[in-house]
Design goal:
The complex is a heterodimer of chains A (314) and B (254).
Chain A (H helix, E strand, L loop, with lengths): L4 E9 L5 E10 L4 E5 L6 H8 L7 E6 L2 E2 L4 H7 E4 L11 H11 L4 H14 L15 H13 L5 E5 L7 H16 L3 E5 L3 H7 L2 E6 L2 E7 H6 L3 E8 L12 E6 L2 E7 L4 H10 L4 E6 L3 H13 L11
Parallel strand pairs in A: 3-8, 3-9, 6-7, 7-8
Antiparallel strand pairs in A: 1-2, 1-4, 4-5, 9-10, 11-13, 11-14, 12-13
Helix pairs in contact in A: 3-4, 3-5
Chain B lengths: L1 H19 L1 H4 L1 H22 L1 E2 L2 E2 H31 L4 H4 L5 H27 L10 H25 L5 H15 L12 H7 L3 H14 L6 H25 L6
Antiparallel strand pairs in B: 1-2
Classes of the chains: A alpha/beta (314), B mainly alpha (254).
Chain lengths: 314, 254
């Protein structure tokens, strides 16, 4: 049975000698919600570029639903819907034309395309703008337009390169719901994002790419299980007591905030129990930092320990 | 079937584009050609007398129409394709299962549509100044279709190589305009000294203008069969070059 995406020994060297991909192996199963993470310049967009034939590969093999892009490029392309990082539609064209023409490039009849365009414009709350030139849209609307455009030929695999970059939290969350719904309908989704929380919330499997190499490729669950210690922040009702907790590291930040470090074999009940015994009321609790972020930084710094960005204001 | 729908989509998009900006694309040629008729036809032409057995105004009409067809076919594809590269919406086609020949045919078809439509507008404008006679309508149609295809292909190749908006104005300014003006639009090449007549033989526009003029007036400085062979050769050569460039992703894929 073929995979949704299969990449073997993929290499890309640009003119001028920069080696963006140094031999990537990656498999994405049908129906997966897959995160491809990495810092800027890691090779994420180059990988997506090769899969979608916008970048010529130097070496290696890419198969989409079993179709090799070297021998069955047009068939492979027909499975993919791409939402690129940069806005790449004609800014002067009305939304409806952009969507209907895009469907036409995939061989979708015009009358079918018009019905689909209406469906996706309504779902993505762009219907009122259907006759406006694309340049009139806000940043968030432009992102949604690119998602609608990518869905016009009903692809089996949707590749989104930083789809929520620059959109506000409300729109981002409604886009998450929309993508979850698509995935539940069987569409394989590959997502690159800088918002690690986004990857953690949406994706089941993850690959981390850095310096043109895959440095981690596993399930989100397995990756997060690698965390030994997690820090929780407790918001407490103000008190003047000297808190004492056993079998754990903790810090009182002020009279109403407490940070507690827990190993993965410890449980929170133990902490709550001790706070209750000391008549301390817990108002709320949260993770100190995004768990995936901690792992991500750890993996990237292990891969290139000397890599550091020095930005200075003179 | 899929390719036919894709081709129709590109043609629709290209036609919608130049019709949407009709003030920039359709009106200026009509004004320019009116000025040519007033200045070269009425004011200066009346003092020139006859050329090729026809009054000067009638002689230059086919050349002026052809000049408009050439310029518009070329500039439509050059600006549209380069703009698609610049805004990156060419990627809409590159990621889709559209064969390269469909992309070439779609853009060239769009350029031909504008060239022929503007040619028609200019023909209608010329009716205000001169009675047009038709010697062979098939020659007229064949010449205008093939010529617009030739220069639409030229505009496409220009746009593929172009890296800036300046790059799509260099060829029209420094190559196309001189070749057109020296292509027998305003004079019969038989008036030139023998040496320059020989030089004119390597200007492809001479063949196009003369074939077109033959269709209207029944006169030509070149053999009509030779003219069509020359145009056919240029179409085949430019189409092959365009296909190779797009297949290799020159200027399109990194």
């Amino acid at each position: 049975m073929s995979h949704a995406l299969e990449i073997k020994s993929l290499k890309k060297t640009y003119k001028g000698g920069f080696q963006a991909l140094k031999g990537i192996d990656l498999t994405v199963e049908k129906g997966d919600f897959f995160a491809l993470l990495g810092p800027n310049g890691a090779g994420k967009s180059t990988t997506i570029g090769v899969i979608t034939s916008l970048v010529n590969k130097s070496q290696g093999q890419v198969k989409v639903f079993g179709y090799d892009i070297d021998t069955d490029l047009e068939k492979a392309k027909s499975f993919i819907g791409l939402v690129p990082q940069e806005f790449n539609f004609n800014q002067f064209e009305p939304l409806m034309n952009i969507l209907v023409n895009q469907a036409g490039y995939y061989g979708v009849e015009r009358k079918v395309a018009i019905i689909r365009a209406e469906k996706y414009l309504k779902q993505l709350e762009l219907w009122d703008k259907r006759d406006d030139a694309a340049r009139m849209l806000s940043g968030g609307m432009k992102r949604r337009l690119m998602i609608a455009r990518a869905l016009m030929h009903e692809p089996q695999i949707l590749i989104l390169d930083e789809p929520t970059a620059g959109v506000d939290i409300e729109v981002r969350r409604s886009m998450w719901d929309f993508l979850r719904e698509l995935n539940s309908q069987g569409i394989t989704i590959i997502l690159t994002t800088h918002y690690l929380e986004e990857a953690e919330m949406l994706c089941r499997n993850i690959a981390i790419i850095d310096g043109g190499k895959i440095v981690e490729n596993t399930s989100m669950k397995a990756l997060l299980a690698q965390l030994d210690v997690e820090t929780f922040v407790f918001d407490l009702s103000p008190h003047d007591k000297n808190i004492t907790l056993t079998e754990t590291d903790y810090r009182a930040i002020n009279d109403h905030t407490l940070e507690v470090d827990l190993n993965k074999n410890q449980n929170l009940n133990h902490v709550f129990q001790q706070l209750t015994e000391q008549n301390i009321n817990v108002l709320s609790m949260r993770n100190k930092s995004n768990r995936l972020e901690a792992l991500f930084i750890n993996l990237i710094s292990n891969n290139e320990p000397n890599k550091k960005l020095n930005m200075k204001v003179n | 079937m899929n390719n036919a729908i894709a081709l129709k989509s590109i043609l629709t998009k290209e036609t919608q584009r130049f019709l949407r900006i009709w003030v920039q694309t359709l009106v200026p040629p009509a004004i320019t050609i009116s000025l040519y008729f007033v200045i070269f036809g009425s004011l200066i032409g009346s003092r020139i007398g006859q050329m090729g057995g026809f009054d000067y105004m009638s002689f230059i009409v086919p050349g002026l129409i052809m000049m408009t067809v050439i310029t518009n076919s070329y500039s439509n594809v050059a600006s549209s394709f380069f703009s698609a590269k610049w805004q990156r919406n060419i990627e809409e086609m590159l990621v889709a299962p559209v064969p390269n020949w469909v992309i070439v045919a779609g853009y060239v078809g769009g350029g031909m549509a504008r060239g022929i439509l503007v040619g028609l507008i200019v023909t209608l404008v010329s009716l205000l100044f001169v009675d047009i006679q038709i010697h062979n309508v098939w020659v007229i149609m064949a010449t205008v279709i093939l010529t617009s295809a030739t220069f639409a292909l030229g505009g496409l190749i220009n746009a593929i190589f172009a890296n800036s908006f300046d790059d799509i104005s260099i060829i029209p300014t420094f190559v196309l305009t001189p070749l057109t003006y020296l292509g027998g639009v305003f004079y019969s090449i038989s008036l030139l000294p023998e040496f320059w007549q020989g030089v004119s033989q390597i200007n492809p526009i001479v063949y196009m203008v003369n074939a077109f003029r033959y269709g209207f007036l029944g006169i030509s400085d070149v053999n009509i069969i030779t003219a069509f062979l020359v145009i056919g050769f240029f179409i085949a050569t430019l189409f092959t070059i365009a296909m190779v460039l797009i297949s290799k992703g020159i200027g399109l894929r990194s």
